[in-house]
Amino acid sequence: MARAWSLTSRPEGLPSDEHFALIDLPQRDLAEGEVRIANQWLSVDPYMRGRMNDVKSYTPPFALGKPMEGGAIGTVTESRSERFKPGDAVQHFAGWRDEAVLPESQVQPLPELDVDPQAFLGQLGMPGMTAYFGLLEVAQAKEGDTVFVSAAAGAVGSTVVQIAKAKGCHVIGSAGGAEKCAWVQSLGADAVIDYKSGTPVVKALGEVARNGIDVYFDNVGGDHLDAALAHANLRARFAICGMIDVYNSSKPTELRYLARLIGNRIRIQGFIVSDFTDRAADFYRDMGGWLKEDRLKRHETVIDGLDHMPEAFLGLFSGGNTGKMLVKV
Amino acid sequence: MARAWSLTSRPEGLPSDEHFALIDLPQRDLAEGEVRIANQWLSVDPYMRGRMNDVKSYTPPFALGKPMEGGAIGTVTESRSERFKPGDAVQHFAGWRDEAVLPESQVQPLPELDVDPQAFLGQLGMPGMTAYFGLLEVAQAKEGDTVFVSAAAGAVGSTVVQIAKAKGCHVIGSAGGAEKCAWVQSLGADAVIDYKSGTPVVKALGEVARNGIDVYFDNVGGDHLDAALAHANLRARFAICGMIDVYNSSKPTELRYLARLIGNRIRIQGFIVSDFTDRAADFYRDMGGWLKEDRLKRHETVIDGLDHMPEAFLGLFSGGNTGKMLVKV
Predict the structure, then answer these.
(1) Does residue A241 sit at the B interface (CB-CB below 8 Å)?
(2) Chain B interface, mutation test: which of A243, A258, A276, most B Cβ atoms within 10 Å?
(3) How far apart are CA A118 and CA B261, in angstroms?
(4) Where in chain A are all domains bearing CATH 3.90.180.10?
(5) For A190-226, how does the pLDDT look when each residue is reduced to its tens digit (9 = 90+)?
(6) pLDDT, position A59
(7) A4, A187, B29, B171: which could join A97 in a potential S-S bond, CB 3.0 to 4.6 Å?
(8) How big, in percent rounded to 5, are the helix, strand and coil portions of chain B?
(9) Which residues of A touch B242 (CB under 8 A)?
(10) Superfamily of structural domain A127-274
(11) Contact B254 A258 (CB under 8 A)
């Protein structure tokens, strides 16, 4: 019997096991144009926290009692589509479950790049695209810029570090703990701040960003955003990708350096990767080139088994992952 | 004997009389190319608070014990310049004093527009240009947009209201107290929020901005900025002109709705009017046209006498002015 995770009630603050339940998916025959997919890799991403709230947003909230959704990679096991045959490796958005039945229009073959399939849920997928378009389009990072990226050991942040280095930027990352910091350094970052060290981020950033920062790629919000404001150069550009700091919190963000955006003409721009999907070809072309030049490293934190998926998701908010957090079915 | 105000020490928080002293200006003969000007109108502006701090910013700090500076309008009384003769009405930046001696390069004739000379310190001067370029260039306001402007009874805000109306926008202003609100309404605003009414700004704005806001022109920061975030539409643009809320405060800004800038792709852009001085001709052309069409109203709050100038300045932070705050020498 195929199974899927569903949300049983809407969490306030950090969700816990009680908010999730595994439900059975009714088995049915394929209709014309449909495919059946055995999922091998399931994605958990911080943005999913937003879909647990019942508020209007860029993606609709998860429906209570229904299968949740998210990125997934699997193999076609049965097909009534001309486009797919059993054995095909595919990606789709019916995640949080071990088997998906979908119309062919909602299923995509994997791009032709020489990487492990699960990379298309991370560096070569949505998180990687978020890094690429956020850094290069939203923040307009260019050679010689000093780029500060928070959560630099995460799926998005670690890709930002590497793309920024490939583009000739000076890169400062933040991560939590010595091990993650060492990994971010190994990706090519020129300096790494350990935000768990006890030194306030604004002070730690000041010590390594002697000439200020030109770009800030924000995955965190809060003290990281404030530190970026404190050290931003004239005409600095901030790409606001996520604010993991506030997803589970009802406390307001406190900013001491906000008024610096006037004198320094700082631009803060929120964005969503889906605004750039029509330009995916640029992303695959550049990433494919960097892959061949061996410029891209990745790391995955893999949680085994669909049964442990909520655990994997919650780990995103406690620093449980280095690189992309994945569930292997 | 000519006199000027000088700063005696650097205030923390709100300045008071003790931070200011009137000093005598040594009388001297003009050098070649210099002019002597009897000042009639002196400008006090919120940004001057920043110059009282000893921090690197877009304008250098006021030097302690020296004459302070700011916008001024006066009449040439003596000239060793080919460009000016006694009787000429001029503007310059040696304000906070009753008489100025300046090289001709630092003196400008008044633009040829049919308004009172003091208008060139307000609606037809720096505050007006701030409104014009902030609204139309930084925030890219266009016909049909809903524009929210804070401190809408101030020199900048009241001009934003009128330019936005001239451009076909739906305009919501905020001001403190019934009298100011009535004045903002008389300028053409479609709705006005009284931020002193006791209703939180976020609630008051929600009640009048049923379809959200597309542009926010920020003179205040704090609760006004947070309310604008709460009600911003997709791809809203915020022009951050000033944050009078924080100039005299060491408390951090608390924002509850900051994360909305991600899903709604909000752009927040700080700016300084001096970035647009090379485009002043656009401003005078459009403002001249609106003047002729009788679309521009202005109000001045006039404090009489150089002796009372610190009082006028401090009034900016306690809501003492409707329209432009001026000192008449």
Answers:
(1) yes
(2) A258
(3) 30
(4) 3-122+299-328
(5) 999 999 999 999 999 999 999 999 999 999 999 999 9
(6) 79
(7) A4
(8) 30, 30, 40
(9) 262
(10) NAD(P)-binding Rossmann-like Domain (3.40.50.720)
(11) no
